[in-house]
Design brief:
three-stranded antiparallel sheet; Aminopeptidase
């Protein structure tokens, strides 16, 4: 597996991966409020054009994506067929190396698997909301600082 920058031409497969991952995560995360076309347009017009997008590529197949926006992990999605294989952890550790001053992210409070995952990588919960997001679902803000180290597991 190779971690590489996403190509501007990969909006369609990245949007499809995002949608598959979100759908497979229900009910731990709320269903997306956007159509497939809206997600594709968002991926083309905003994400790939103005964010740092990294993918886990296995023989030309994109298995996961991570979006960095400054110190924020804005998106992390792994294809359902590759969940639990360590790919998400590899992408987050890659982000830690790229952002040695620290990282932040939001995840849904209901997503206990993601919460355990981030906490296992050294992230600490620093704030919660009652649903100040598009899905109107409670979420939690996590922060990682380099003094906590870069997790190896």
């Amino acid at each position: 597996m190779e971690i590489r920058r996403a190509l501007p031409t990969e909006a369609e497969p990245l949007a499809a991966l995002w949608l598959r991952s979100r759908a497979a995560s229900v009910p731990a995360v709320p269903p997306t409020v956007h159509t497939g076309q809206e997600v594709l347009r968002w991926m083309e017009e905003l994400v790939l054009s103005s964010r740092e997008v990294w993918v886990a590529d296995s023989g030309g197949e994109v298995l996961a994506l991570l979006v960095l926006d400054g110190p924020w992990i804005d998106q992390l999605y792994v294809d359902p067929s590759a969940t639990g294989c360590g790919i998400g952890g590899d992408l987050v550790r890659h982000a830690m190396l790229r952002r040695p001053d620290g990282l932040e992210l939001w995840t849904f409070q209901s997503n206990s698997g993601a919460r355990r995952f981030y906490e296992g990588l050294g992230f600490v919960a620093v704030a919660t909301t009652d649903g100040d997001n598009e899905e109107r679902a409670p979420d939690v803000r996590y922060r990682w600082r380099p003094d906590r180290g870069v997790a190896t597991t």
